[in-house]
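hi support,

uploading two proteins for the ticket. first:
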Amino acid sequence: HCDNPAALTVRDMEVVEGDEDKALGISFTPATGVYREVTVTSSDEGKVIAGASNGTVTATGIGSATVTVTSTYNGEATSSCIVTVLPREPLLTFSGTTVTVTNQSGCTAGTIYYTTDGTDPTSSSSTIASGSTITERASGDVVKAIYVCGGATSRIASVKVGYYTTGPIIGGAVYGGGRMGNVGGNTSGTVVSCDT
């Protein structure tokens, strides 16, 4: 037997442009024995599209939107959060001691900042054009890069030169021998069902 939730809360979250069906961090009161189906609305669908009755969002553009979650079974159980959409981090590929840095963001008017000493890049770091290379890096050097566009900063992409033989670094996964660090994950989501 399930009851209507008395209340719900939803946490602010960051997503990366192009992320699809990211689960919102929704908590229900009481925590068990309630219907968990929700409707989700967004204040700006140019940045965040609300999922259809499943507690998810899709990132469509860089910036922020207020997302409101309401219980399908109790319209008074509602909560809002800010969903911030970050630019996609730069793509780092390396071959030998040369690192190529490429913009992956849909926002093309931004700037790529990078470091070669393992420190986190900032808007005061060196800049590089998309598709350009950083040459003559020693094996073991850590190259890090961020993309800044529209006032928003991507997560950090990083590669340790010579750590693997070659390969691109994409979204925290290994492709062809590459490696990337500092990629955030998604928070837990909601189950659209009745739990007992």
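and the second one:
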Amino acid sequence: NTHEAIALLHEAAVDCALVEGPETRGGLEELAVETDELVVVAAAGHPLAGFARVEAADLAAYRYLARERGSGTEALAAELLGAAYRAGPVLELGQVDAVRAAALAGLGYAVLPLAAIGGDLAAGHLRRLATGRAALERSLTALRRPSSHSPALDAFWTHLRAVAEEATGRTADHRAARRPAGNGDAGPGGGQAPGW
């Protein structure tokens, strides 16, 4: 979780961390590694998957599969879901893979990074729920203490920089492909649709 990772860096318990949340990172060296879209999903057989568009009240009637508080994804999920955020039953899980597995099992709906579930969406196992709210992206950021410079850490940082450069090109090339038409995230003419 982002908050704990930053605390460990400041305590010098770790030299480097990868975080996803919009947390204050004062005194740390930062490297933006990749950007990914967060999407609202449910299993193909879940009742929400049959809705053309879901409203906050629709989501509140079903279990929300959440990450633990303090996780970067969860902080952004609150922004993405608005009034629907934790408005109904909640099952809190500690890892993205656990949330994904619970969503695939039909236990509720979730907010997950597109990178983690792209294959599930393509295979039809999960369905993206059209909320009418603006799409939301998260950034994966590498952090390290400025005083942390070992040969191994410097080599890892160099590798992350190369990954970031590759991801920047990939994001620019494929941004439109990541948002299929008719997903409910944009109104006529490509503008943001009103949401709740």
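thanks. also noticed: Residues 172-195 have pLDDT under 50 and may be disordered.
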